[in-house]
Amino acid sequence: MSDPILKLEGVYTDIAQYHILQGVDLEVPRGGVTMLLGRNGVGKTTTLRTVMGHWRAKTGKVLLDGQDITTLPTPQIARAGVGFVPENMGIFSDLTVEENMILAAVSGPIDPARLEWVFSAFPPLKTFWKGHAGNLSGGQKQMLSIARAMVEERRLYLIDEPTKGLAPAIISTMARALRELKEQGASILLVEQNFSVAKALGDSCVVMDDGRVVWSGEMAELATDAGLQERLMGLSMEAHQ
Question: Residue 148: how many CB atoms within 10 A of its CB?
Answer without folding.
Answer: 26
